[in-house]
Every structure is written in structure tokens, then in C-alpha cells.
Specification:
It is a single chain. By secondary structure, the protein is α/β, with parallel strands linked by helices. It has one domain: Luciferase-like domain (TIM Barrel, Alpha-Beta Barrel), CATH 3.20.20. Helices cover 49% and strands 16% of the residues. It contains twelve helices and ten strands. The chain has helices at 19-31, 47-55, 73-86, 103-113, 128-137, 148-158, 176-191, 194-202, 207-212, 215-221, 227-240, 259-269, and strands spanning 9-13, 35-38, 60-63, 66-67, 91-96, 121-123, 140-141, 163-171, 222-224, 244-249. Strands 1, 2, 3, 4, 5, 6, 7, 8, 9 and 10 form a ten-stranded parallel sheet that branches. Helix 7 (176-191) crosses helix 10 (215-221) and helix 11 (227-240) crosses helix 12 (259-269). The longest helix is centred in the last third of the chain and has 16 residues, at 176-191. The protein is globular and about 50 Å long. The protein starts with 8 loop residues before the first strand and ends with a helix. The mean pLDDT is 97.
């Protein structure tokens, strides 16, 4: 099985079927980004995937992620099949979000039922058991909020024949205090989620770090600065063994898609 290839850099963002979202997807495509990783939380439903594909010409989409607790394997497979029939190769199914007492077993059962080729499905994996499942049952892993050292360990766990795509926070801001403040707001949210907290501890961060969010922690988990400095930070993941980095731009405000930041970063990344 050949692992998927998305190029060095893509975009992570939340899109809907709104005219604004469809236009943002077209902007990303025009700028030359090869792939958009669709954040699961903002996704209103599977129809949005088809709407985005139809609104663009070549850019590819990966769900990063679809919660297996929210979408049935049958519905996901039907969406994949419809997109594949119309525009082959433009949709890869990224899965995760299993909860309850036996999340690994739930994901395994879901994969048993999912009529999507192994090379077109990925898992949002963090811990060693999830990485193992991703390597055995899918085309690879899609971790988020991780350091370059973690990336090296994940590559060793997955092997060279599996995709390792890392989603990394980015703040297009050269002022250190402002950039770190924006990043802290997002990082602090994830420290309260058990799965992310457990992985942060595995990477060596402590409960004191969770409370204080010191500069060294923020700088390891979020790239900020000029476009060149951001590109240099993101390349650390590629050097450590990642195949692809999904750029998750955060701005500290809610509202429109960060298309201007995508535009600013494009010359340094593409």
C-alpha cells in the first residue's frame, strides 16, 4: 500500500457550507495549498465535504477529524464513495473521537464496518496504542499539539511506510508577548482534555506547566514570528520524520477564516 502524499504543508481549519467557507477554500486552492484538513467540531455534517469538493477544482480534503461517535460508518463510507466517483482522490477519511470505557475497541469495530480502502483512511493518534492501531488499520496518523521530539518517536512507532501528518498551531505575529498570549489561550483549552493532557505529560510537561503555560511550552507547541521563522519552526517536524504539517493558524479572535495569514505564509511554505 502506498501511503498518501499531501506535500510538505497544508492547512487545518474549520469550514462549513456557507458562502464564506466555500470562498475560503477557493482562496486556499488559488494560493497553492494542496490540502485542507477539516476540523471536526465546526463541520455541520457530511454534506459539507461534498459541497467543498464541488466548490473547488483540485485541492484535497481530509477530515481531521470525524468523530466515530457522531457519524456512522455507513454514512461516512457513502460520502467517500460519492466523492470518489465524481472526483477521485480528493477525500481522505480522518477518524477519531471515540469515547467511553473502551475507545480503542470502539475504533477497531468502526474500522471493521467502514467500507473505505485502508489507504484512504487515517486516525487522529496520540498515545502508543492509538499509533499502533493507526499503523495496523489505516494509512497513518494525524497527531495534534505535539513537539518535534514526539514526531520523531511517532515516526519510529509507525515505520516509514505510513503517513505521519502533524497539525501544528501557528500565530502570524512577530511580537513575542502577543503571539504567546494568543497561543496560550488555545493551548490552555486542550490541557483540560484528558487525552491531550495525558500526551502532554508523556512529552515531559507537568501539571505546573499546565497552570503556568511557560514560554518554553508555548514555543514547543505553537510556531510564531515572521513567515520565515514560522517555516523554520514547522520544518522541525519534517526533519523529525513527519511527511506533512497541517498549519493551524490561530488569531485570537473568532470570525472570518484567516485567509490573509494563509496568504502571508504561502511564499515561505509553498
Amino acid at each position: 500500500m502506498n501511503k498518501p502524499s499531501f506535500g510538505p504543508f497544508g492547512i487545518t481549519t474549520g469550514l462549513t457550507s456557507s458562502p464564506e467557507s466555500l470562498e475560503a477554500a477557493r482562496v486556499a486552492e488559488e494560493l497553492g495549498y494542496p490540502v485542507i484538513w477539516l476540523s471536526g467540531g465546526p463541520l455541520p455534517g457530511l454534506q459539507t465535504i461534498r459541497d467543498l469538493v464541488e466548490a473547488t477544482n483540485t485541492i484535497r480534503y481530509v477530515t481531521g477529524i470525524l468523530s466515530v461517535d457522531a457519524y456512522s460508518a455507513e454514512d461516512v463510507a457513502a460520502t467517500y464513495a460519492a466523492v470518489e466517483a465524481e472526483t477521485p482522490g480528493r477525500f481522505t477519511v480522518g477518524l477519531g473521537g471515540a469515547h467511553g470505557s473502551h475507545p480503542l475497541a470502539a475504533l477497531g469495530e468502526y474500522l471493521d464496518q467502514l467500507a473505505v480502502p485502508q489507504e484512504h483512511r487515517l486516525l487522529a493518534a496520540l498515545g502508543p496504542r492509538m499509533l499502533k492501531l493507526a499503523g495496523e488499520r489505516t494509512a497513518g496518523a494525524y497527531p495534534f499539539l505535539v513537539t518535534a521530539d514526539y514526531t520523531a518517536e511517532a515516526r519510529a512507532a509507525l515505520g516509514d511506510d505510513k503517513l505521519l501528518a502533524v497539525s501544528h498551531l501557528v500565530v502570524v505575529e512577530a511580537d513575542a508577548d502577543r503571539a504567546r498570549s494568543i497561543a496560550r489561550d488555545t493551548i490552555s483549552f486542550f490541557t483540560g482534555i484528558p487525552g491531550y493532557a495525558a500526551n502532554l505529560r508523556r512529552m515531559g510537561f507537568t501539571d505546573d506547566d499546565f497552570s503556568e503555560l511557560p514560554d518554553h511550552m508555548v514555543d514547543a507547541l505553537a510556531a510564531w514570528g515572521t513567515p520565515g521563522q514560522i517555516a523554520e519552526s514547522l520544518h522541525q517536524h519534517l526533519t523529525a520524520g513527519a511527511d506533512h504539517v497541517a498549519v493551524n493558524v490561530i488569531t485570537g479572535i473568532t470570525g472570518p477564516q484567516p485567509t490573509e495569514q494563509w496568504r502571508t505564509l504561502a511564499p515561505a511554505l509553498l
